[in-house]
Design goal:
heterodimer; A: about 140 residues; OB fold (Dihydrolipoamide Acetyltransferase, E2P); 5-stranded antiparallel beta sheet; 3-stranded antiparallel beta sheet; about 5% helix; globular; B: about 375 residues; alpha/beta; Peroxisomal Thiolase, Chain A, domain 1; two-stranded antiparallel ribbon; 13 helices; Thiolase-like (chain B)
């Protein structure tokens, strides 16, 4: 369970499936029916072509570290310094997250390092998709 | 089609004081700058028939406060470059005959926070769901998110980024209104307090109070005003995403790549004709992105261009000559101050005047690379 204090997401009808998936340990993305390309954040149509012909699928949970900052000031729910990262999922989309089970230093956080999803509950309603160094890369 | 130089800036001013202004609320900073701009143009509120400002301040608040009855308003709010978009929209509106004389205002009590509007991300918004839970705390934690990728791709060093701040401080040293004027070194920057790695405090913009206002009209009327007209040659605008995590390319801004070249092409100029350049510098990496995305240098060349001194006083492309958001002032929406400096340079009245400057490009960014607006100015009508 995460320390209290973080901003808590409030799902909407268009994003509920994503947050339900996180609670069940599944990282659910959507795919454009026209191009086959995955996209994020969730919406019931494709940002590539506008088609409503889209499907939900479970992503692998594998990602690489695309970029980040290490914040040095206090924020509710966080102990500085902590990294705010953007990871690139194996399926293409990027998302903001935190990197766990890893020192929060430039030396430990190398761009393009391999990561895997680490579902972490905030409370009974919301589970966040955080990421940790991939096991085979340790 | 709007002609090159068809519309001109005939009034321009900042608030009487900038920096720390604890005795003015946000709306009064708008009004103070507006009154100064009207005095600059020799106009009164009854002469203005168009008003633009950026939310949370709505045009009706400003129009009513100043006693203006507008025929045209614009409340486009895309962050700190909104004023570039207001200039663009106002030029089109005047061309279309919707109004004759537009007042664009900015006021922000960014430091003193007097009647300032809080901006919490709504927990149901996409930012609230997909960024806020991971601990961002304002622009210093979000705007720099792409920069490590830029550094890795192009071999840009921490010293290179620090050099941006050093050069801008050099310009600020020539400007009595700049908040920070003492010279700094690369070591000073790299030893300053860490805010959000890789950025230290001297690579982050100031947080100040202040305002600014511009008055636009048809260039055919411009000779009736007491100041030297500054002609609008070309304009551009675009937006991308207000979620920095969803930016298409972390090493280049799509909004920059649309807005900048659109303005430069509309102006019918070559980049080598540009005498003076403003690139909104909320953080030290923005001038690098701007120089490359607007095509003033090739990909990966911006850091070397600045390191070699080309943007310094005496360099071939003077950049951010007021000291920029890093050293001059930054209320939260700095774009108005970048525009004011371009106008001063074109009027020949800037504290760090670029001798003989005839063309100025003013490029703005809106929050976390979400938006962009570019204006090409000249003191000569084509």
């Amino acid at each position: 369970m995460l320390a209290p204090g973080r901003a808590k997401p409030k799902p909407t009808p268009e994003t509920k499936h994503f947050w339900d998936g996180c609670k069940e340990g599944k990282l659910l993305l959507q795919r454009c029916g026209d191009t086959g390309r995955a996209y994020f954040p969730p919406r019931p149509f494709s940002p590539y072509t506008g088609t409503r012909n889209v499907s939900v699928f479970e992503a692998s949970g594998r990602a690489t570290l695309h970029s980040y900052v290490i914040h040095h000031r206090p924020v509710p729910g966080f102990t500085p310094p902590y990294a705010i990262a953007v990871v690139e999922l194996e399926e293409g989309p990027r998302l903001m997250t935190n990197i766990v089970d890893c020192e929060q230093t430039p030396e430990a956080l190398q761009l393009d390092m391999r990561l895997e999803v680490a579902f972490t509950p905030m409370d009974e309603e919301i589970t966040l998709p955080l990421f940790r160094p991939a096991k085979e890369a340790k | 089609m709007l002609g090159r130089g068809e519309i001109a800036i005939v009034g321009a001013a900042e608030s009487t004081r900038i920096g720390v202004v604890p005795d003015m609320s946000q709306i009064m900073l708008h009004a103070d700058a507006a009154l100064n701009a009207m005095a600059d143009a020799g106009l009164r509120p009854k002469d203005i028939d168009g008003v633009a400002c950026v939310g949370p301040m709505m045009p009706q608040q400003i129009a009513h406060y100043l006693g203006i009855t507008p025929k045209w308003v614009d409340g486009t709010g895309v962050g700190g470059c909104s004023f570039m978009l207001h200039v663009r929209h106002a030029a089109a509106a005047i061309h279309a005959g919707y109004c004759n004389t537009v007042l664009i205002t900015h006021g922000e009590s960014g430091k003193s926070r007097i009647n300032a509007t809080p901006r919490p991300p709504e927990p149901e918004s996409l930012n609230g769901q997909f960024e806020a839970p991971f601990g961002p705390f304002g622009p210093p934690t979000l705007f720099p998110i792409p920069v490590l990728r830029f550094m890795k791709k192009y071999g840009v060093t921490h010293e290179d980024l620090a050099t941006v701040a050093v050069v801008q401080r050099e310009w600020a040293g020539r400007n009595p209104r700049a908040m920070f004027r003492e010279p700094i070194t690369v070591d000073d920057v790299l030893n300053s307090r860490m805010i959000a790695y890789p950025f230290r405090i001297l690579e982050c913009c100031l947080v100040t109070d202040g305002g600014g206002a511009l008055i636009l009209t048809k260039s055919d009327r411009a000779k009736d005003f007491p100041t030297k007209p500054v002609y609008i040659l070309g304009t551009g605008e675009s937006v991308e995403s207000n979620m920095v995590s969803q930016m298409e390319d972390f090493t280049s801004s799509r909004a920059f790549r649309v807005a900048g070249p659109t303005a430069i092409e509309a102006a019918g100029i070559d980049r080598k004709d540009v005498d003076h350049l403003m690139i909104y510098d909320a953080f030290a990496h923005l001038p690098l992105y701007g120089l490359e995305d607007l095509g003033f240098v090739g990909r990966g060349e911006a850091a070397a261009f600045i390191r070699e001194g080309h943007t310094r006083p005496g360099g071939k492309l003077p950049l951010n000559t007021n000291g920029g958001g890093l050293s001059y002032t930054h209320t939260g929406m700095y774009g108005m101050f970048a525009l004011q400096e371009s106008v001063r340079q074109m009027r020949g009245t800037a504290p760090a005047q670029v001798p003989g400057a005839k063309i100025s490009v003013c490029h703005g960014v809106g929050g976390m690379f979400s938006a962009s607006g570019t204006i090409v100015f000249s003191n000569e009508r084509p």
